[in-house]
Task: structure prediction
Amino acid sequence: MKHLLILFGLSALTTVISGKSHCHACFDSICYSKARIFQNYPISGQLAVDRVANVVYFHYEDTQPLDHTVAFDLHDIRFLNIPGIQFSFARAVDQATREAYIGGANGIYKYNPITNVTTHFALNNKTIWHMQFKDKIYYTIFMTKGLYTYEKKQSKPVVALKDYTIDDFIVDKRDDIYFMSNFTVYKLKKGENKVTIFSTIIYSLTTDINDNAYFIQRDTRGLYKIDYRTGRLTEVGAFGSGSPFRTVFDNFNNVIYYDGNSDELFYLTPNYGRCKVTDEGKGRKLKKKVSSYFDSDI
Result:
């Protein structure tokens, strides 16, 4: 518990009264303040959110070392231990049932937050590397090429991706698949068998509450999304500092992210200060800078 430091309290009222706001991130020209959820121990693997209850799932390893798969309730501000599984890397939530699917060294487990019970679900001889739930489970296997789906007790490969080593992937609102492989982002459009190169810039990938595709550039701290009219990336804004590594959206479409530099988990909420994002530096040294019309504390 001592490692959980929720620092809520920055609000729109603060901005209105004082004319000042902290601007730890700038998205769509709006300032966001960050609250620290977790620190001191490295977090590994995916973040996942139960958007009905606004609970974020993650894993950390302490100094013993012991593994802990846990959750944090963003509404009630409380820490939750997930029973029946310690180590995990992949995590995904069925938003309709609130059941969390947790991938570890012995396949996929299913956690029921209503009964607080974890049961083994599938694939007990596989180490699950990455997952997403979108009508069914999409998953990858550690040190294994390809992307797979699991539905009605059957596992099937996505044939077009069988030769790719996939480091990260998302399935968006159109059921298009974006994935990172060998320092390149590729796209597999729904119903097609041909993979196309989408970007040679390294991004981490995520989707929001409407399954819109988002891309985070860790080095420049830029946040981008797909413009579905053009199929191209458009800049949403930038994180003010650190190295945003894993990112998810909660039920208000606010960002929760893991800072790979500081090993801290943060929650961003809008304080409605105004801001802008500018580029500084040149070439490989290009960085995003957040400037606020109020006082900034980045």
